[in-house]
Amino acid sequence: MNFTSSRTLGACPPRRELRRVLCTGLALALALPLAAQAQTAAYPAKPVKVIVAFTAGGTTDLLARSVSQKLSEKLGQPFVIENRPGGGGNIGTESVVRAAPDGYTLIVNSVGPISVNQSLYKKLAYDPLKDLVPIVQIADVPNVLVVHPSVPANSFDEFLAYAKTRPANFNYGSTGVGTSSHLSSFMLMQNLGVDALHIPYKGANALNDLLAGRLQFMFATIPSVVSQIHAGKLKALAVSSSQPSRALPKVPAVASRIPGFEAGSWFGFFAPKGISPEIVQLLNKEVNAILPQLNDQMVREGADPVGGSPEQFARMTQREFVKWQKIVKDSGASVD
């Protein structure tokens, strides 16, 4: 039997209903990737909101602004920073979890809201590891152990000896209960067997009291105190990363005296769950291209640029959750 049929893509032979359905399905299957590509090609077609879940001027804010400015220049649309502080970063983070996953609401976030708070807060209404999509890690930022100049310790070894002989009023500040600042000091005192008094603050108020001599020591992110260190207003004795920071190369790592000690901060871009994988890949590619341009500035300010794939960033956030879950439990820290 001889018959003719059209081989033209999208054309359905007449009076053949089954073939008509198959052709329609094929056309749709081909159209969906094209639509996704068109959406990605047009992105961003309007300003992009970048949430920072902390106050302006902090480490998260500074890193977000530096990278977002470069993204604006490269992609031709403003990447606008919006600070939404409160609740240890939970308020701003939840606002992004609830946002439309269209690529026009992103967040630059850190270790606390992503990998610590679900162990710390009893009533967290979302799971950041499931409800946010990692895009790219921007930087590692070690915490640095800083003391007031009046503390009679000019090296980490001297500080360890000093801490072990101090009376009950030995104290340290932090930027809040359960923050990296708090838990770094807790880990150090736990290793030393010292029962120091923790005095939590809101944000920069802890640094103000340390500078005034009302606190004896604290762990702070390097960018938040590097200018005071260089000005001689604070003494930097150790960093919480496994190796010395490029920003403070002469300051030893805590791990040089307490093997395995690592309690730094990290920062990166996230988006609401459901965002197009093509947009994730586009943003990942652009940020990875931007970081070398910011290398000198970031190192000078106390941050070590990282970059990498979304998959690498996702695995790291999960490892951090497991690590901090145990530390939070050991510390007894909890927020209702």
Automatic annotation (TrEMBL):
Coiled coil: none annotated. Gene3D superfamilies: Bordetella uptake gene, domain 1, Periplasmic binding protein-like II. InterPro entries: BUG, Bug_dom1. It comes from Comamonas endophytica. Residues 1-38 form the signal peptide. The keyword Lipid metabolism does not apply. Keywords: Plasmid, Signal. The lineage of its organism: Bacteria, Pseudomonadati, Pseudomonadota, Betaproteobacteria, Burkholderiales. CDD domains: PBP2_Bug27. SUPFAM superfamilies: Periplasmic binding protein-like II (SSF53850). This is Tripartite tricarboxylate transporter substrate binding protein. It comes from the Bacteria. The keyword Signal applies. Pfam families: TctC. Belongs to the UPF0065 (bug) family.
